UniProtKB/TrEMBL annotation, chain A:
Pfam families: BPD_transp_2. It is found in: Cell inner membrane. Its main location: membrane. It is a multi-pass membrane protein. This is Branched-chain amino acid ABC transporter permease. GO terms for cellular component: plasma membrane. The chain crosses the membrane at residues 10-26, 32-53, 58-77, 89-109, 114-131, 167-186, 207-233, 253-278, 290-312. It comes from Nitrincola tapanii. CDD domains: TM_PBP1_LivM_like. It comes from the Bacteria. The keyword Transmembrane applies.
From TrEMBL, chain B:
InterPro entries: AAA+_ATPase, ABC_AA/LPS_Transport, ABC_transporter-like_ATP-bd, BCA_ABC_TP_C, P-loop_NTPase. This is ABC transporter ATP-binding protein. The keyword ATP-binding applies. GO terms for molecular function: ATP binding; ATP hydrolysis activity. Keywords: ATP-binding, Nucleotide-binding, Transport.
Amino acid sequence: MLFQKRSERLFIWIFFPLMLMMPLFLDGNIFYINKLSSILIFALFVMSLDYLVGRCGLITLGHAMFYGLGGYIFYIIAPQNEAVNFWVYTFYICVISAAIALIVGFLVLRTSGIYMIMITLAIAQMFFYYFSDSMEFGGIDGVFLYLKPETSFLGIKMFDLDNPTHFYYLCLFSLFNTLVFFKVIMASKFGRVVDATRENPERTTALGYNVFVFRLASYVIASALGAYAGYLFSMQYGFVNPSMLSWQTSGTALVMLILGGMGSIYGAILGTFAYEGLHYFFEHLTEHWMLFMGSAIILMVILLKKGIAGYIEKLLEKRS
Amino acid sequence: MSQVMIETEGLCKHWGGLKALDDISLTFADKELHSIVGPNGAGKSTLLNLLCGTYKPTSGRILHKNEPIDSIKPYAFARRGIGRSFQKTNIYPSATCLENCAIAAQRYMGGSFNFLKPRNKEPVLLHIAEEALHKVGLGHRKDTVAAAVSYGEQRQLEIAMVLATSPCVLLLDEPMAGMGHEESALIIELLKQLKKEYCIVLVEHDMDAVFELSDLITVMVNGQHLVTGTVDAVREDPRVKEAYLGQGDEVY
Ligand SMILES: Nc1ncnc2c1ncn2[C@@H]1O[C@H](COP(=O)(O)OP(=O)(O)OP(=O)(O)O)[C@@H](O)[C@H]1O
Ligand SMILES: [Mg+2]
């Protein structure tokens, strides 16, 4: 079975049906639907980071670079005054960002631990400054994308991206597929070696595996999906700006995944929702929301050692 | 004498000023068990680390089936069939015993870049992994997480993992250390069987086991080669007695 843990199955059976019905509850309230869409998009991004950090043991502070690149690549390759096909451009963006990840990963993965954190950060900052200083990319303000792609596939028009509810469903669909995708590769023979390289790289080398190649493959996969999330984000409000690839974005994603439970993949969704929920709650309570938010996160991380996902697992174990 | 599997020529390994290995030239033949003994810090583990590619020699050459292999990548040693067990238990603690062996077996079974095939749906591979567990007497533990089995059983698992890679050369670093009496006896029986087919290099402190199993024994002291010979020859050699007694280390 793909979803082996009970907590995982429970989560999926509650979360996705609930999210499917959400637009009905919200009754066309566009503000909240858009808000939810952006949370789903970011959850997808956090999920790709969780695969790298939690499953491959590769800690990066530069993952947002691909989030931003997803948007900028779309801006660069899409024609200005013509609606492109969503699926075709999904393919382009994943391939181009995978190619970039291949080169970056080749450099970055020669290091590990704290050095890898520093180098990923440095490379991401290089891209950040490149885009914030380029006039052709609108500098710090970024650029606008005026036309949304159309989504016909084999002649069937699937989503109308100008409609927030349609866009919401596209995000939900993407998130679900990403979750299944990661679960499939984690359960595969490739996933077996990835688990081995995380847990004991020396022994894995001694058994004859080229650890570097498996890490590189994982890095490329996670980066391409991170870029896909950025591509979705840029489409939502029709703009791209350098803050997407700032180190704060990477840092926030890391906090979310620690909150959700590292390595569990579905925990990324929990973490993103918990973080955004706290944010929303404190923001409306006080102007010093950052202070309270920080304290709440520190408390949660200390109390829930394995994140929210780990806590749910423990609860279910006790009951059975 | 049977075919030479591994040969070292003037192998040296220096750690800063320390000569952990100094000019070691040895040959290891197929279908023979060749033991390396010597007091603590003699350089036995260092020798194995060089033979399996974990460290690169400071100077000297290593030949496998007459081809030099000292410049190949560390992972390439295992692909040539040079399997190695570790003195310090080196397993995957959070995986089950069966999974530990399955990781080992998958290397030569192939398909490690298969992103879709579920890892638990390959009977042949799992069968090989299970076989390896049975050989070392761990069959009943296959579904137990490796961290949860006893220290002695982890030592057995360590050997099972090497067997699961289907090697042609076995480099075993103190495989019996930390095992109970029964398990040691089982491993000694197993090694007797294995040496009929494989080239085995055994580093071991348990002298009874060494004398019982070895075709050849090499004694090392302070990184230097002292003597190589048959069990009887080494037992009678005055230099060996002196080396051990002089260091006040282990007396046999
Ligand atoms: N990675 C290393 N860095 C520095 N010195 C090392 C390293 N590995 C081993 N040594 C040194 O090399 C010498 C030989 O060590 P080695 O582990 O090969 O001995 P050994 O014969 O296996 O001893 P034991 O019986 O205790 O296992 C020791 O003095 C050790 O301190
Ligand atoms: Mg040793």
